[in-house]
Each structure stands twice: as structure tokens, then as C-alpha cells.
User: Fold this.
Amino acid sequence: MPLPRHVGIIMDGNGRWAELRGQSRVEGHRVGADSVRDVTRAAREIGLEAITLYAFSSQNWSRPASEVSALMDLLREYLLGERDEIMDNGIRLAAIGDVERLPSRVQDPLDALRAESANNTGMVLTLALSYGGRESIARAVAALARDVAAGTLDPSTIDVDAVNRYLPTHALPPLDLLIRTSGEQRISNFMLWELAYAELIFTDVLWPDFRRQHLFACLEQYGTRERRFGLTSGQIVASDVETDVEST
Ligand code: FPP
Assistant:
């Protein structure tokens, strides 16, 4: 079964999960952090090269201050508590987004673990923090414009690969699969550029209930998809046959 190299997850439904149980929204985030641990472990075990988790969007800053603060506490707890797991399993921790906006109680352990795990060669776990897809593209465009103005970039050479190099995801494998939990079917400003040819899976499971068996079910569904990248089905089948002949 073909495995995706890189899976992105929009972890949605923490608030509803808690409200259904008469609990505070923060309790949903707390159990959601347990799902992060379980899913990350499973992704590493099954051999994914990269997973990217939408943990806090640029727009989430506008949530009630108490919820933002509780999420920051959970992130800190996660970064400190998962250090051994990340290091023992050769995982490289990365982050995308406007991380300078995070409070130092999150930024400090994030920077420390990013630095400590920088030479790990196993799976890359990227946390999207204070992240927005449009914001990310806007930053890339600004950096690109600066280089054109400085004379280090020739505008006539700007193509898809050139833009890609300015994005924070440039060193990651292409995003093959996006999973969104909780039944919502939208992208909510996540990895807009990178999603170009990703397969999309929307599941009704709320994030705090989403565990390894749900990830495996999504990977199985991904395995049944025919990815055409703009080609015809016939071309894809023919190139599969060629690859099979070449490899025998
Ligand atoms: C969306 O659910 C979820 C978030 C905004 C935060 C995600 C955070 C975690 C899973 C926990 C901490 C993260 C890590 C990496 C340890 P929602 O609150 O929008 O749910 P709702 O749509 O049901 O209200």
C-alpha cells in the first residue's frame, strides 16, 4: 500500500468534544494533546517521513484570553514532556508560523527542542503555530520582493520552484495527504500553497477521540486513491506498468 510521505492534520473539534461532555473547552484541548502524542507515535512507527499539525492559527489569537493562555500552557507542557520521546525516536521538531509572537514560556522550550533535535534524521514533526497559509505566502512574497530589489533575484527566473524556496515548508517532502477531523469540510488557511495536489480526507471523529486506529484508517483510504497530478488515468496506469517492468 503506498504510504504518504507527508501528512498534514487540521486537529478540529476539541471544543465540541468538551461541550458534549459538559466540560470546559480547555479539557477538550487537554485530551487533544493526548491525541497528538498517540498520533505522532503511530506516524513514526509506521514510517511517515513528515507530519505537520495545525496547533494554533494566526486567527486563534482572537479567542478568549483564558483559552489562548490555556493552549499556551498545554504547548509548553507538551514541549517539555515529549522531549525524551522525540529524542529517543530520532524525531526532528520543526515549527512554521509567526513563532516570535508566542510567549517566551512556549518559545523557549520550542527553540531548545528544535535546536536539540536538529540533527535527528527520523520523522520531521512540524507544529504550525501562530500559522496562517496566506500569511506564510505573504511573507514569502515580501522576502522575494526584497531579493529582487537587492538585485540577488532575477524576476524572469521566478517560477513555482523559486516561490517554493521562500516558503517555510521548502525542506519538507511534498504534502501528500491532509486530514481534517470533526466533520468540517474547509481548509481554514492551512498550507494553501502546499495543498495543491494533496489528497483530502474529512472525518467526523472529533480530535480528542482521534487516535492511531483512525490515522491508520485514513492511510488505508489514501492507499486506494489514484493520484493523477493533472494526467489521465491511462497515463498513470501506463507509468505504473513501466515502473513495475523497470523494477523487475
Ligand atoms: C481546534 O478545535 C483545535 C485547536 C484550535 C487547538 C489544537 C490544540 C491541541 C490539539 C492541543 C495542544 C497542541 C499540541 C501540539 C500539544 P476547536 O477548539 O476549534 O474545536 P471546536 O471547533 O469544536 O470548537
Q: What stands out?
A: Residues 42 and 216 are 8 Å apart (CA to CA). The chain has nine helices and six strands. The longest helix spans residues 25-46. The first strand starts at residue 6 and ends at 10.
